[in-house]
Amino acid sequence: QVQLVESGGGLVEPGGSLRLSCAASGFTFNDYYMSWVRQAPGKGLEWLSYISKNSGYTTYADSVKGRFTISRDNAKNSLYLQMDSLRAEDTAVYYCARDHDYADYWGQGTLVTVSS
Amino acid sequence: DIQMTQSPSSLSASVGDRVTITCRASQSISTYLNWFQQKPGKAPKLLMYAASSLQSGVPSRFSGSGSGTDFTLTISTLQPEDFGTYYCQQTYGLPRTFGRGTKVEIK
User: Please, what is the Cα angle at A42 between B70 and A111, to 5 degrees?
Assistant: First the structure.
């Protein structure tokens, strides 16, 4: 069955960096776009970024453009989110999701806390 | 950016009730509209895609309709397990914006 498992979250100081990973299994990873979505504590969902099947196309929300970088390794069935220059407002649960024109499978999320 | 406005922001209904949630886009999005259900502490779950297509495994009491700017999610007969927060999302343009959510409580 389709599984997405995020890892790499944790506590980081403002201005710091973190790299999230998403391990995919149960489907042909390189057949799908992949996305990152986050949810701040007690808030709604915010779409962040997605990447095409062969990494040739990436796009970002304005809130993270220039600070976050999405990437994938199809040989390892893995999706990544490199997060730099982190701010307190980046504190959230980060989800990876399999994407077509809709996100049909989601991981369980990983919590990122940006605080000194 | 395309703004998605959901209403109501919350509702309380009894088991067996018919529940309708609406989502309005700030511009036409054709039928590029998806609905998600999220329970506390859990990841969102896709219910409907392309406005009216039921995701595999989702009970048939859920239905979606609309095109252009106005969309609805209907739960025909509310069940106890349908509590949670429901989000619409457009995938017509970038960024792929979500509505602010509708919290459904069971009376």
Answer: 115
